[in-house]
Design brief:
The chain has about 280 residues and is of the alpha/beta class. The protein has eleven helices and nine strands. It is globular, with a radius of gyration of 19 Å. The structure holds adenosine monophosphate (AMP).
């Protein structure tokens, strides 16, 4: 397994592979890997003859009051997992090699970026779309793998690739969860024991909404009301950011539940902000 820090070295390596007809799969991450990240590596390994993973805590997707400085890191453990899961190349760039001091070019997908997480994290998806574009130019993969846990991010990237005629196939992979249902996230490490004990109620609430839909409920306001009551009862330590019921591709809010419909939620819990989503109809 190669570990490369400089974009030019990665480009050179992948160029060689591509010349020899290899199919290159790519998993972009911010590190501090858990089983969710590993599921993307495994999906890439299954599908492609070469697998590249990147580890880069991208400063441009963090807001001024967000957790850039304290974002958890454990490169040694990530590299061990990469090795164990057959990754061929890990790209760990430094910020100064990704962004020149005069950096002033941005990739924006404004409509898909404005609601849900975009409302409370202005500029976040611009940072994501920009760094993923740059990573695609450096790594030049055939296929790239993203988690459905970050549903809006996946929608933004799919649109960005389509709009820019980017020659990369985007594959979405299912959310990996703890045994109690909590979606795995590097940020779960911020939770205290008491907060962690309440956190599974976020997914339980989404499942409860899905049950209500299965039972015939179609009214979005009624579902949202039920969701809020569920969280107030089972997750009193949390502070809701949003609970929305949307079309999964356009992210436009639904007025009635009809297939396909996605429920998406974000909630502040102690030092963490948890997100989750579930197809409910
Ligand atoms: P991050 O390191 O948080 O930027 O995440 C890197 C990639 O892993 C993104 O495509 C995420 O959507 C994906 N990911 C994070 N958590 C999970 C999870 N619990 N299940 C599946 N994919 C995940």
């Amino acid at each position: 397994m190669k570990i490369l820090r400089h974009p030019d070295a990665v480009r050179e390596e992948v160029m060689q592979w591509r010349c020899h007809g290899q199919q290159v799969g790519f998993v972009p991450t911010m590190g501090y890997w858990h089983a969710g990240h590993v599921s993307l590596l495994d999906a890439a390994r299954q599908r492609c003859s070469k697998v590249v993973a990147s580890i880069f805590v991208n400063p441009t997707q963090f807001g001024p009051n967000e957790d850039l400085e304290r974002y958890p890191r454990n490169l040694e453990n990530d590299l061990a997992l990469a090795q164990a899961h057959g990754v061929d190349l890990v790209f760990c760039p430094q910020a100064q090699d990704m962004y020149t001091p005069d950096h002033d070019t941005w990739v924006e997908v404004p409509h898909l970026s404005q609601g849900l997480c975009g409302a409370s994290r202005p500029g976040h998806f611009r940072g994501v779309a920009t760094v993923v574009t740059k990573l695609f130019w450096i790594v030049q993969p055939h296929v790239a793998f993203f988690g459905e846990k970050d549903w809006q991010q996946l929608a933004v990237i799919r649109a960005m690739v389509r709009h820019l005629s980017c020659p990369v196939e985007i594959v979405g992979c299912p959310t990996v969860r703890e045994p109690d249902g909590l979606a795995m996230s590097s940020r779960n490490v911020y939770l205290t024991a008491e907060e962690r004990a309440q956190a599974p109620a976020l997914f339980a609430m989404l499942q409860n909404l899905r049950q209500r839909v299965a039972g015939g409920e179609r009214n979005v306001d009624a579902l949202k009301g039920a969701g809020l009551r569920y969280l107030a009862e089972h997750l009193p330590l949390g502070r809701l950011d949003y609970l929305e019921i949307v079309h999964p591709d356009t992210l436009v809010p639904r007025t009635q539940v009809e297939p396909p419909t996605l429920a998406a939620v974000a909630l502040f819990l102690g030092k963490a902000r948890l997100i989750d989503n579930l197809c409910i109809g």
